[in-house]
Design a protein that fits this description.
mainly alpha; 2 domains; two-stranded parallel sheet; two-stranded antiparallel sheet; 50% helix
Length: 150
């Protein structure tokens, strides 16, 4: 299909279930899969390159706030971020907090291990962890963290 004709068609027909913007076999496969399931799908290739407008976008969870106590000297997070996560994101374990809510385990597993007890205490305060489960939860996290190899 002619690129200009395809873009004109996209502009005039906006009733698509899926619009795949890509090149290569993965995008083609996704388009074919969607179409074979009865969805209206279109793939756009060959778009001109543009500067990324979100490259330097500040993402709240990446940086400590000025008034937030640092979580650890080696980690770019604050206790405020942990408190927010515990109050609003319902983490299920210490590993969930330190690996998925913030990226502490990925950045520095040693630092994550050092703050595991403090995270457990905050989880207890928020009633996300029972006090009698703290020792097991911390031990379990430390075992997991040691196997990350980071």
């Amino acid at each position: 299909m002619n690129r200009d004709l395809g873009l004109d068609r996209l502009a005039s027909e906006s009733n698509w279930d899926f619009l795949i913007i890509s090149g290569g076999t993965t995008g083609l496969g996704a388009t074919l899969d969607a179409a074979s399931r009865g969805y209206r799908a279109e793939q756009v290739n060959g778009l001109e390159g543009r500067p990324c407008v979100t490259e330097n976008l500040w993402i709240e969870s990446e940086f400590p706030t000025p008034d937030g106590k640092p979580l650890h000297p080696e980690l770019p997070y604050s206790f405020e971020q942990i408190n927010y996560s515990l109050a609003h994101e319902m983490p299920q374990s210490i590993e969930d907090v330190l690996s998925r809510r913030i990226r502490a385990l990925t950045l520095d597993s040693g630092a994550a291990i050092e703050i595991a007890n403090q995270i457990a205490d905050r989880m207890i305060d928020q009633r996300l962890l029972k006090p009698e489960e703290k020792t097991f939860a911390v031990s379990n996290f430390v075992d997991q963290a040691k196997h990350t190899g980071l």
